[in-house]
Amino acid sequence: MIYLYVSLGLAILAILAGWMIARQVLARRVDNEKMMSVSDAIKEGALAYLRAQVRTMSFFVVVLAVVLWLTIGAEYEGAILGVPLSICLSLSFILGVAASYIAGFVGMVMAVNGNARVAKAALTSYKDALETAFRSGAVAGLITVGMGLLGATVIFLVAREHAMKLLIGFGFGGSLAALFMRVGGGIYTKAADVGADLVGKVEAGIPEDDPRNAATIADNVGDNVGDCAGMAADVFESYEVTLV
To answer: Stretch 233-240: mean pLDDT, rounded?
Structure first.
């Protein structure tokens, strides 16, 4: 039992460390209007994408939670704190989706807020720019590991002998969110990338990654939602399934 409490403490410590580093990164001021205008456009697009993705994903989460409750959960006997084990399985599935989405969301938020700060730091010091970029990425890593360890530990502490049954639902939930964020984000970013190249470079003669091309903003939005949010959710899923 002592090992579970140690794991719980380490999970909370990882989340707190990520929160503290995030505050340090976000405390850096960017006084360059051009950098902030591009950064704000990317941030707005990334948040809009994730909101649309949540609305789409919520339908499948509800349907699959009910399916788990009526199929696999129906074979489980017993209860946890008075709640039937079948319902607990669906709840652990939803918890896994939420934890994976939070990990991806944090990764995306740090990416869209850290990009301008890294660019600003690079104007004066490459060392400072590298540290800023590393700290932004460290936040996503700490939150991903912290959320995965926290979820698994809480399930063990609450479910006791039924923990392994619920961990299946938790891991499945993490995999579902990772699927939506990784694959959906990948398709989005590749479509925007091809569009930016065809219209910008080929037709209009605008240099690659020029912010005058609206598709370039969409391309960078795709990089954030696919390679940052999607990657964080994907790492969470791999880490959690390994724990299970």
So the answer is: 81
